[in-house]
Amino acid sequence: MKKIILSALAISCYIFGVAQSNTIVPKIIMNKNGIVQSVEYPDSIDNSKIPSSSVDFIKEILKPSENEEFKLEPSKNKRKDFVNEHYDQYCKGIKVEGAGYNFHFKNGKMFYAHGNYIKIENLSVTPSIPEERAKNCFIDFKNIPIDSVTGCISELLIKNISDELNPLPKLVYKIYLFANHENNNEVGYVDALDCKVLLAEPSILDWAATGTFATRYSGTCQAITQNYTGAFHLSDSTRGAIIHTWNLNGSINIQSRIELSDNNNNWTAAEHSATENDMGLDVHWALQQIYDRLNNVHGINSFNDNGFAIDAHIRYGTINDDRDNAGWNPTLNLLVFGDGAVKYRPIACIDAVAHEFGHGITDFQIGWGATGDPRAFHEGLSDIWGAIFESRIRPNSTWQMGEQIDLSYSCLRNIQNTNDPNARYKIANTFGSTQYNSGDSYVRSGVFSHWSYLLVNGGIGTNGVGSAYTVYGMGMDIVEDLIIEAVFNNFFG
To answer: Is 161 found in the same domain as 74?
Structure first.
């Protein structure tokens, strides 16, 4: 109780700005049960108020019982200055589903911790029923013929199960069935003490399938979907990172997102183009191709190289400026794509998807800022990703960005011909040139992106400050490897 009161006092000081002593305190958020959900440590806070390690935070702030423990998951941190750690929660050796804590460090100093800690008291972790009986209970619950069940995956774990108004930790078997039956659309949680089915949830792991997509910009394509709740959805958990494409339906509120679905996995233009939902097909397919290129060729697993989920949202925006845009949200770590309004068609072509995906990579691996020259490099590198992936996946005009979506110009930016009169935006090709000094981040981005063009193709000419140059091209293979090495091995850090 004393801990709760002190934490609440810290919150009050934060809300009102400054404590009476002007002492800077951690910014703490707790749930209704007094359990700490997140702590932010401001840059100016006294180091003595910051736990020196994740283990110290767990001991000092969460204070688990002797039966509870937190286990550090393997990490692929590539940077020394930014380190992220994730701990899963266990009780007497049994994993607690959905429970754990994340810790973020900058230059060895913790600046943010957040997660879901479930307090567990007086819970037996010895099952009273065998796994086989739990499986059969769930089969009966779902009314699935036993002869249609070809296999089962089960796991003994602890899960918070809502009991009226109060969630209670329960020892359960998590049951996933392999059965060719229409009722097999959920994962079951069966009480390991009395065989009662406590919860059944839709399973995005259920029956991955190959769908046929009538995309807007890339013709007919094949992509992985998943069949649950009686339809096929733009979700893919067959890779090292889950890829999920959602529909915002003209909103900016992520909480309002809905699934994109098809009854027979043949996603035709007649069914989906009228509402512009077919742009989701382009996005979902492109994200799978981008992921596969990174993973299969370079061994890279998503933005963070550690399986971070890839969440994309189409038809973003209520006003024209939002609809005529696409972006990476660095706070929520997700992608959004507008359906076009005045300037553009639905923003879902390969280089646009790769450009925004590239922002996610840069945020995780490098962390360049959002203003000035760092922003210019951010945008330039994303255009480089756009060119690389477009050249590998389905080549169009590799060095023209957005050539398939612009309603009035041949493209948004031309990396090869930076002053292309038919491009919507002219970009600088030389650091310190008049164009560079007078331009915004997008104009300045051309220095970096045009550099990549010259590395690939070579070139002879005079740059923006009047100096002659001769560059011998190395080809896309070498440049792609160079960018991968530089980004994922901290050469830009």
So the answer is: no
Distances (CA, A) of 93 to 97, 176, 491: 12, 22, 40
Same domain flag for 53 and 195: no
Q: Are residues 302 and 402 in the same domain?
A: yes
In this structure, are 153 and 89 located in the same domain? no
**CA separation (Å) from 257 to 250, 281, 336?**
10, 16, 11
Give the pLDDT confidence of 185-194 residue by residue, as tens digits. 788 999 999 9
Which tokens belong to 89? 């929660």
Taking the C-alpha atoms of residue 195 and residue 134, their distance in angstroms, rounded to an integer, is 6
**To which residue do tokens 């590395």 refer?**
455
Domain CATH code at residue 261 = 3.10.170.10
My answer on whether 70 and 94 are in the same domain is yes
Tens-place pLDDT, residues 250-285:
999 998 999 999 999 999 999 998 888 999 999 999
C-alpha distances in angstroms, 247 versus 42, 280, 324, 334? Answer: 36, 8, 16, 13
Same domain, 264 and 409: yes
Q: State the CATH number of the domain containing residue 183.
A: 3.10.450
Question: How many domains is the chain built from?
Answer: 3
Report yes or no on 124 lying in a domain.
Answer: no
Residues 317 and 173 in one domain: no
More confident residue, 229 or 5: 229
**What was the pLDDT predicted at 493?**
54
What is the extent of the structural domain holding 92? 2-116
Asked if residue 493 is part of any domain, the answer here is no
